[in-house]
Amino acid sequence: MMMQRTTRLQGKKRQKTPWSAYLYVFPMVVLMGVFIYYPIFVNFYYTLYNFSAFSLSHTFVGLGNIRLLLSDPVIATALRNNIFYCLISIGFQVLLALGLAFILEEPLYRRFSTVFRTTYFIPVLISMTIVAMLFMQILSPRGLLNSFLSLFGGKVRTGWLGRSSSAIFCAIFMSQWHSMGYTTMLFIVDIQKIPTELLEAAEIDGANRIQRFLKIVVPLVREMFFVVMVTTVSGAFLVFNDVYVLTRGGPGNSSTTLAVYMYDMAFTQDRMGYASTIAILMFVICVILALTQRRLLRTGKG
Amino acid sequence: MKKVTCSVKKKKIGFPKFNSSRNQWTLGTVIILFFLLVYFVLVIYPLIWMILSSLKTEREFFRNIWGFPAEFQWENYSKAWSMGISDYFLNSVFVTACTIATTISIAVLAAFGLVLYDFKGKNLILLLGMGGMMFSAQVALIPLYRVIQNLRIHDTYWAMILPYTAFRMSISLLLIRSYFLSIPREMYESGVIDGCSSLGILYHIYLPMSKPILLTVSILIAYYSWNEFLFSIIFIDSRALKTIPSGLMVFRDALNTDYALLFAGLTISALPMVLLFILMQKQFIRGLSSGAVKG
After folding, report:
1. Kindly report the CA angle at A8 between A23 and A19, in degrees rounded to 5?
2. Which residue numbers in chain A have pLDDT < 50?
3. Which one of A80, A237, B6, B220 is at 20 to 30 Å from B185 when CA atoms are compared?
4. What is the value of ipTM here, to two decimals?
């Protein structure tokens, strides 16, 4: 409509020919095509081959890489670690963060809440590499945590990162330390959008704090809740930086995750085809989880 | 709990606002405050410890892990800075600035085209533009490595700037486009009547009106490219081109056990984003929260 009107106004000026429209979107299309869509699609093709990063020869292996993936014990370890990551992150970054956001927005705590929420947010600003290097010193055999425990007579001789039973949990808890302030901030922004009259009215009707939280705040931030849930869950299955810098997947492969294992396969063992297969596995997991959660959100709405 | 609310209800007739149960301290609320404080200490103490340790000597760090440094070793900072942190720092600044410039230019052009024109395939392009948000870098990594090699930009700044731009494109496009949609169409038409070319309209009318959203988007991009790690360790080999997150790995490996120096390096590297946050808290929060909601 509008276009037609300007056409009439301006006679033969160039800008209404749709070609200029294509020129405007052209850079974006090329860039995203080359750096996002082409790699995603070609990845499926790569899983059918074995190849190395620096040679041109490809060996066709068909579904061999997928078969290998299904029987690889390290994949099982990595998946288990990713699932731990996911569950603990849901607990802290979704559930606890929502509760924390509600508490910080309560009038009772308001006079401290600026200090608290600003401080809780600081780790979010610090790059994961920095955080992980800091935590390596905290968790090392003679590090801060052990010397703190020895004040209470605890005799922990080994480092927390050197034991295969505890290494992954170090990475997970470091990640909560790093990111909980972020999701809390997201929930706070959303809770602030709730009209105060609503909470006051509920209070006059005799709703206590817990009732107000469950009956008013939770339903009203539901959409943000699902957004945070989806990003937390997919983030947990894609996690790389935290584990790579803190433990490199060690000791052994005990704290590896899918992304770290993929990196290992591709760039230390030069098995690019197999690494692509791991990438596909992560892709499939993320798509399935995102779709399930979207369905849950829909039914929640209905 | 119940008792408190009841008594408040009675008083409420007189003072509905100032005496509500939400303002009363009970055992429960004090316990909650205690946990808030514990979390506060858990967050802040490691950071304070990092700064204190960065001011110690190497021996002091091992001998006296808790205490204050006997003498502040400020030269740790200048040593760390000259041992490579300065290069990584400047690289980070450069790559971040370039990523902001390229992402904003390309996203602004695309958003303008998508908002003001009707053309064949518009919906498909919009879908492709927004769809980038669903894919994460990890999933496309191996083919992307090949693409970078084939374009012969491996181990150059472009190997970071272009993928960063691509992976920040969707969210930038989304935010800028929805802002452009809110600008009344009459603005465009008046530009046309005045004989302005469409690029001129974008530059003289749309861009000046969009400053707030461009700032928000820039912060979002800066936050991402300052902290990005995966691409920068894989696509960059030479030490001279590394940004802070990947450069710190080299820095650490070169240091052996001089952790005080390491902490000085970490503190310098953490500072810019924290400062940016303190200076522009409002925009920062707006940027990150709009980035999440729509991502």
Report:
1. 15
2. 1-15, 302
3. B220
4. 0.85
